[in-house]
Write a structure and sequence with these properties.
Layout (H helix, E strand, L loop, with lengths): L1 H14 L2 H4 L7 E8 L9 E7 L2 E7 L2 H14 L3 E5 L8 H6 L2 H10 L3 E3 L8 H11 L4 E2 L3 E3 L12 E6 L2 E9 L1 H7 L6 E3 L2 H14 L5 E6 L2 H10 L5 E4 L22 E4 L5 E6 L6 E9 L5 E19 L5 E3 L2 H14 L2 E3 L4 H18 L2 E5 L28 H12 L4 E5 L10 E4 H7 L5 E8 H16 L9 E4 L1 E6 L8 E7 L6 E3 L5 E7 H4 L6 H10 L3 E6 H14 L14 E5 L5
Parallel strand pairs: 1-4, 4-5, 5-6, 9-11, 11-12, 12-14, 16-18, 20-27, 24-29
Antiparallel strand pairs: 1-15, 2-3, 3-16, 7-10, 8-9, 13-14, 15-16, 16-17, 19-21, 20-23, 22-27, 22-28, 24-25, 25-26
Helix pairs in contact: 5-6, 5-11, 12-17, 13-17, 14-16
């Protein structure tokens, strides 16, 4: 009788959850994900113009000292939390130019991360710099679609995923790198291989599920739009913590910032399951606070949260002479009330431990960074693609694209002395410039990479092909829109409604000696100056590399590209001139047309 009873119990157990039979019933799980991305070595607070009551006010935004305060506050508030970074810690300011990621990793160690995924800019200075960053890191690095060969300095430095146990439940976290952009637009060695994002995510979702893990987070440096497509096509992902696209999510309309989507963005997978996507803008200005609830079956039941815009409690305004002045105590109290009412602005003190560590690096660059070298005579706005909004700049107001990139191309053209023209990729310029004084720090923030100027001899036909492939890179091959070509000494029409390799027309080149504009001749040879980054064929500029492979390497001027622009500014200053937009007739883009359905 006892044997029959035991068999009946066992049979019943095979029809029910095993754990339910023994009283260990699966439970719902509440989890808070604290996240940031794309801080790009912006370790100190920086001025940001907001609106309060419809009036402009300048705040001290971001900075790792206040990011640390926000993260520690959130951790103390919630029992179950993960702190994640979605990549691109490096490249963007003098903190990186001088310290090559070591300042970043030291501060991230102090803050503490549960996981970090690789961003494309982690490879900007090659394998060695990234290896040193990871070796110093106290946190795990994950990337499912990047592999290093045995013997490489990066071999074994990261894993495709990790598993965290929270209240006895396992949560899988898969890392993801943007493959094409990193391989084409950064400086990984030939020892590094990048794999398709969709296939690799599917592979590791299946692997985690085979281990019985039903709560899966994708820590992704693939971009907001790309990750929405990925979420729709691959089942099993519950949450995507996103990076790469510098997307501001959430409602910041009251303070004058335009977002590109809701925080979190919720959509359905192929099988109809909820997926939540969250991103924390850029440059350490936002810390994301995402709350997710899984039901007892491991399904994502709901998600909500707050993207915290991080600011200090000192506010500034511009007077009638456009000088920055402190806002008085009376008005400050009103501003504090306005910002508190928004619900997603955090006014925070600096974390003293992080502040002390940061000050050691800051003191080393302060004297050089503070040197004023000239004056920007008017706002020089920067977008990557004509008509396309970028980092808060309304693209509709710039039908010919960046006002700044052609000015920088002009500076490189002048520095070269030999060049017939300069071509500059949009992504090599990191922001616009406001009217006013400009310092060495401003220049290195604007042009943060370790590039020199390279002179390459090319035919007119090759120059046209170069411009065509720069457009193909982002428009057809899903690469970075940073490949969009600007120039000085060249001007051309672009029609994106035409077939690829037939979008650039009516090319003209400026004669260096007399300033006359002449048609670009296909068979004639010209000297084009470019930065060393695209000279290596990066950002889709493969013709530059092919020309050198066939005809010999270009001439490296060994002119630092940031200092070349600084010298241009200083030369104008010594002549009593300011940096201004180029005259209409020197604008590189004569017209830009997009398809009617775009």
């Amino acid at each position: 009788m006892k044997i029959n009873t035991a068999l009946n119990i066992l049979a019943t157990c095979t029809m029910m959850w095993f754990t339910e039979c023994f009283g260990d019933t699966p439970k719902p799980l509440d989890l808070t994900i604290i996240h940031l991305n794309d801080h790009h070595s912006h370790l100190a607070s920086e001025p940001l113009e907001l609106k309060a009551g419809g009036k402009p006010v300048i705040v001290e935004a971001g900075g790792m000292t206040r990011v640390a305060t926000q993260i520690k506050t959130l951790r103390s508030k919630y029992k179950n939390s993960l702190t994640l970074h979605a990549g691109d810690a490096m490249s963007g300011t003098l903190y990186f130019t001088l310290f090559k990621g070591q300042a970043d990793v030291e501060l991230l160690n102090e803050i503490g991360l549960d996981a970090f995924t690789l961003g494309n800019h982690e490879f900007d200075e090659g394998d060695e710099v990234l290896a040193k960053f990871i070796e110093k890191a106290d946190f795990p690095v994950i990337a499912s679609n990047v592999e290093a060969t045995k013997g490489s300095v990066l071999y074994g430095k990261w894993k495709p995923y990790l598993i965290k146990e929270i209240e006895g439940q396992k949560v899988g976290i898969i890392g993801l790198e943007t493959a094409q952009k990193t391989s084409a637009s950064s400086r990984p060695s030939s020892n590094i291989t990048f794999y398709d994002e969709f296939f690799r995510v599917k592979k590791y979702v299946d692997k985690l599920q085979s281990k019985g893990i039903d709560k899966i987070i994708l820590l992704s440096h693939f971009g907001y739009e790309n990750d929405q497509e990925l979420a729709k096509k691959i089942d099993g992902i519950d949450v995507i913590i996103d990076g790469d696209s510098h997307s501001l999510l959430g409602n910041f309309e009251k303070i004058g910032l335009n977002s590109v989507g809701e925080y979190p963005t919720q959509l359905l997978s192929k099988s109809g399951d909820r997926v939540c996507i969250a991103q924390a803008w850029e440059y350490s200005k936002v810390v994301g606070e995402l709350h997710v609830t899984f039901d007892q079956n491991g399904h994502l039941k709901e998600c909500s949260g707050t993207p915290h815009l991080i600011i200090g409690d000192r506010f500034y305004a511009k007077d009638s002479q456009n000088k920055i002045i402190d806002i008085d105590k009376y008005n400050k109290e009103g501003l504090l009330a306005v910002f508190h009412r928004t619900g997603n602005v955090s006014i925070l003190d600096e974390d003293p431990v992080i502040a002390k560590k940061l000050s050691i690096y800051t003191e080393q660059i302060k004297s050089k960074a503070a040197t004023v070298i000239g004056t920007i005579g008017e706002d020089l706005r920067h977008i990557r693609v004509p008509g396309k909004s970028y980092e808060g700049v309304d693209g509709a107001s710039l039908p010919y694209g960046s006002e700044l990139a052609p000015v920088i191309a002009a500076a490189f053209y002048q520095a070269s002395l030999r060049a017939d023209a300069c071509i500059q990729n949009a992504g090599g310029v990191r922001s616009g410039l406001k009217a006013g004084q400009i310092t060495i720090q401003d220049v290195y923030s604007l042009l943060p990479f370790s590039n020199t100027l390279i002179e390459i001899e090319m035919s007119g036909a090759q120059i046209k092909q170069l411009l065509e492939e720069a457009l193909i890179n982002f428009y057809d091959n899903y690469g970075s829109d940073g490949s969009f070509p600007y120039a000085y000494g060249l001007r051309y029409d672009i029609d994106m409604s035409r077939a690829k390799n037939d979008r650039v027309s009516n090319l003209e080149i400026k004669e260096r000696k007399n300033g006359k504009w002449l048609p670009l001749e296909n068979s004639k040879h010209y000297i084009i100056v470019v930065n060393s980054y695209i000279a290596d064929g990066k950002d889709g500029y493969t013709t530059l590399l092919e020309v050198q492979q066939k005809g010999g390497k270009g001439t490296d001027t060994y002119l630092d590209y940031a200092m070349s622009f600084a010298n241009y500014v200083q030369t104008l200053q010594s002549d009593g001139k300011k940096v201004l937009r180029l005259p209409h007739e020197e604008r590189c883009i004569k017209s830009y047309k997009v398809p009617d359905n775009k």
